[in-house]
Amino acid sequence: MKSKLRQKFIIGNWKMHTTAAEAGHLAKSVVDGVGTEDRVSVAVCPPFPYLALVGKILEGSRVALGAQNLYPEKEGAFTGEVSPTMLRDLGCKYVILGHSERRHKLGETDAFINQKVRVAFAAGLNVIFCVGETLEQRQASQTEAVLDRQIVHGLAGVATNAVPRLIIAYEPVWAIGSTGHQATPQQVQDAHALIRLRFGQMFGKELAQSLVIQYGGSVKPENAAALLRCDGVDGALIGGASLKADQFIAIVRAGTSEWHTKQEAASQPSHNPELEPKQTQMNASKLDSRN
Ligand code: PGA
Predict the structure, then answer these.
(1) Which residues pair with 129 in a beta bridge?
(2) How confident is the model at residue 268 (pLDDT cuts 50, 70, 90)?
(3) In a domain, 106, yes or no
(4) Which of 43, 52, 151, 245 is deepest in the core (most CB within 10 A)?
(5) What is the domain range of residue 225?
(6) Does the C-beta of 13 come closer than 6 Å to ligand 1?
(7) Atom 2 in ligand 1: which residue has the minimum CA distance?
(8) Total domains, the chain
């Protein structure tokens, strides 16, 4: 599979943080910081109670609005839940589904996440579908099997025409938050190659080439460029650093310069072996021989 230029996409996942005042202030600072930048796509996902407030601030800006979850029904007797229709009504374009905090702390299963994914697409939302292994799973060499399972089950029954509205975020659970662990660019690149390959087996190579795969897990201004430079890394899902506008904007800037570097390299007439996804090819033969 040849590498393809995909625009970088930086998303802030504010999780269960901020007050209304802080959310408003943060949203304004992000809008100002992004300005008219159109070489990188940007979105923020505030907590449910602040979606309307933040949505108003984002109006007319280059920053899109996303939610952190939904319940897979249009409406009904589901006390405390939020439907995809409500998210659309509030101006949400994106929704994060399958986040590891919901998988592991709230017990969400692949089947439940799959229901959410399909309902989100049916409602016209774009889905940021998170996958990733725990430390125990990585140490037991189960990373490939876990990613495989999450993708196959989580995306089962998704129509091909919905796929352009899908973003996958690879988030190794052991690297999320202040765990003291950080994934190396090589680990990230390898996992992204596996995800793209598996996805290609389900939906075809062409769609796999256009698929945006973000990395998430302790992305900071200091490591963003190195991660965003990796082949097959098309953006980042940012938790902690998205709560500080200056840090988040620094990561957006890193995305802009990496996109430039790659675009310049791609426009060179001579073949550049550095841009070939070596790891993909290696992993491809490994996976292919299994099927
Ligand atoms: P982190 O969170 O950047 O704080 O590690 C990422 C995420 O959970 O989306």
Answers:
(1) 97, 168
(2) low
(3) yes
(4) 43
(5) 8-290
(6) yes
(7) 239
(8) 1
Dihedral over Cα of 219, 223, 228, 232: its sign: negative
Q: What is the pLDDT of residue 11?
A: 98
Handedness of CA 71, 76, 81, 85 (dihedral sign): positive
247 in a structural domain: yes
Q: Report the nearest atom of ligand 1 relative to the CA of 240.
A: 4
99 is catalytic: yes
- In angstroms, the CA 201 to CA 192 distance is 14
Q: What is the pLDDT of residues 105-157, one digit of tens each?
A: 999 999 999 999 999 999 999 999 999 999 999 999 999 999 999 999 999 99
**36: CATH:** 3.20.20.70
Rounded distance between C-alpha atoms, residue 201 and residue 163, angstroms: 13
- Give the percent of the chain with pLDDT over 90: 85
Using pLDDT thresholds of 50, 70 and 90, give the confidence band for residue 262: low
- Write down the pTM of the prediction: 0.89
Closest ligand 1 atom to the C-alpha of 100? 8
- Alpha carbon distances (Å) from 94 to 87, 123, 137, 235, 256: 9, 11, 29, 15, 21
- Give a yes or no: residue 23 inside a domain: yes
Evaluate whether residue 80 is within a structural domain: yes
- Give which of 245, 289, 66 is closest to 165, Cα–Cα: 66
What pLDDT does 281 receive?
37
pLDDT digits (tens, 9 = 90+) for 71-86: 999 999 999 999 999 9
In angstroms, the Cα distances linking 281 to 7, 201, 285 are 23, 14, 6
Q: What is the DSSP-derived secondary structure letter of residue 59?
A: T
